[in-house]
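Local shape tokens

___
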Amino acid sequence: MNYFYLLTLALCVGCALGHENKRLLLNDPDAIARLANLEQQNQLLTQKVLNLESKMATRQDHGSTYIRWGRTQCEGTNTELVYSGYAAGQRYNHIAYTTRYGGPANTLCLPKDPELSNMSYTSSWSLLFGAEYQVNGFAHDSAYNDVPCAVCRNTYTSSSIMIPGRHSCYSGWIEEYNGLLGGGHEGDTASSYICVDKNPEYVSSGEKSEGGLMLYVVGFKCGPLPCPPYHNNHQVNCVVCSK
């Protein structure tokens, strides 16, 4: 009996000493300093997480948009389709006034599901025509096909640009797509330069020339342009980049 009593007493004393040692460790200045340092690091990490979440929310609410000419879909990470439709602009020449080349020069991407007005338009002062590839330079069978387009949004970036004369983006930028620079004929009405995708698609049932907005592949001309770095009569690459 005395043996078991002594054993129990020894265990109790050991527990008490162990508890006292733990209490002494928690009161140790070095331990307190380490706990304070860990708490400070935890607060810093928590703030970093909150900042990152705020930046992600801001990017998701804003993003950047661009038009992918010659395609009906968007590609790439964090990219969504806003709408797809048809490239359009003013006619390459004016039927009644062959020497007048005014009017809007920009190219539009018209949606497939327009909401039309109830008012008729009886004049011919400013009409929208569909765009068509006028040559096979964009693809082996692109001539006289109508041009589709897609309005795209990258939810992760804040700005998008088209760079003429390059097929790759500068460091720090994300490539959305690349292709060939397209524009109107120099003898036709004014037009804008657009970046036509390197693998162009065509609008269904649009395989004949209707004389709307005509797109040609653009080339370099030395003289006003420094050569090198540019080269006379070379086709102009283009790339759309986001950041």
